[in-house]
Design brief:
The radius of gyration is 22 Å and the shape is globular. The chain has helices spanning 50-59, 80-85, 91-100, 123-133, 150-159, 234-244, 336-339; strands at 2-6, 15-19, 24-31, 34-39, 63-71, 73-74, 77-78, 104-113, 116-117, 141-143, 167-172, 182-188, 191-202, 209-217, 223-230, 285-297, 300-301, 304-305, 310-314. It has 343 residues and is an alpha+beta fold. Strand 8 and strand 9 form a beta hairpin. The chain contains seven helices and 19 strands.
Length: 343
């Protein structure tokens, strides 16, 4: 079941609210010792999280199907980069990471228990049953907090962000579980930042600019790749070709990212391989780092935008040197143990 985006927290009667976790969405199937983990796109996740498979055998009811999120809690909040590293082809590496950066599972819905399907059961009843089933569950299995008080949800929206949570989800108490339907509401943080445009990628269909590569300066004057602006219409992609063309001549001369080869990229630099799609073309075209654009973003993780940003407008009134990390509103981390509901 999916969620539709809202910029305002709904306050209708009969709503339940939960923190929005930033990890891998996962459906857990358990039937005795048989445990299978599936992503939201039905891709198998079981082999990547052996420590969770063992935990599910120990902590979950003998026969059940749960919906939730796989996360990794680091010293500064949820660590999506560490979580991404777990999708690795080598079994030995997976085992090493399972020990060094163990994952947790946060359950937030119940689809089945025993012989009963809960798909057509109202959410309020599903939640109550889930609380009972996980009453004695121990870490790394957790039950997400939930409240019917919108003021508490608004407080979560503000305080939990520093722990890596990127918003709040609202569900109607009478809502059935509706696969592939955007029946829930997610409220996410929304901010803007001014960034240097230092390159672009051609759209996968070959028509126009698919994404613009964004940079921000640190205190030492180094321009860091912080993410991309994408989601342009067909017409806008073609317009951007003309707008960026004057910046392409001599772009590699003194370009701050000129030395970034794919083998050194580590997945963060513009030429780095795509962890989710090894065959995806990640080549990019440099442009002189002279133009500034304003983008909207919802979440900052460490030094990068967690998701792709949206282009708002060009900022001819801003100089590239003024595009620094100092402009970003970075929330104070909130203790993850309290988010998990543990002592």
């Amino acid at each position: 079941m999916l969620a539709k985006l809202s910029r305002e927290l709904p306050r209708d009667a009969g709503l339940f609210y939960e923190p929005k976790w930033d990890g891998f969405r996962c459906i857990v199937f358990r039937d005795g010792d048989d445990v299978e983990l599936g992503s939201r796109n039905e891709k198998p996740l079981t082999r990547y999280f052996p420590e969770l498979v063992e935990a599910f055998r120990r902590e979950l009811p003998d026969r059940c199907v749960l919906d939730g999120e796989i996360v990794i809690a680091g010293p500064n909040g949820l660590d999506f980069d560490a979580l991404s590293q777990r999708i690795h082809p080598a079994e030995k590496r997976i085992r090493q990471l399972a020990e060094s950066t163990p994952a947790s599972f946060v359950a937030f819905d119940l689809l089945a228990h025993g012989d009963r399907s809960y798909m057509e059961t109202p959410y309020a009843e599903r939640r109550a049953t889930l609380e009972t089933l996980l009453a004695t569950a121990r870490p790394p299995v957790h039950l997400t907090p939930a409240t019917e008080d919108p003021d508490v949800a608004q407080d979560w929206f503000s305080r939990f962000e520093g722990a890596g949570l990127d918003g709040v989800v609202a569900k109607a108490g009478d809502l059935h579980y509706l696969p592939d339907k955007r029946a829930m509401v997610k409220v996410k943080h929304h901010r803007t930042a001014d960034c240097v445009v230092a390159g672009f990628r051609t759209h996968k269909d070959g028509a126009g600019v698919g994404s613009m590569l964004l940079g921000l300066f640190d205190g030492e004057g180094t321009l860091h790749h912080v993410g991309v602006a994408s989601g342009f219409s067909v017409a806008r992609r073609r317009e951007l070709v003309d707008e960026l063309e004057p910046l392409r001549a001599g772009a590699l001369e003194d370009h701050p990212w000129a030395g970034w080869a794919p083998q050194d990229a580590g997945g963060r630099m513009p030429g780095g391989p795509n962890r989710w799609n090894a065959g995806k073309d990640m080549t990019w075209e440099p442009v002189r780092a002279e133009r500034v654009c304003e983008v909207s973003y919802d979440h900052l993780q460490e030094s990068r935008f967690r998701h792709a940003t949206s282009f708002v407008r060009w900022r001819p009134d801003r100089t590239p040197a003024s595009c620094t990390y100092d402009q970003l509103d970075t929330p104070v981390p909130y203790e993850l143990a309290r988010v998990f509901g543990t002592a």
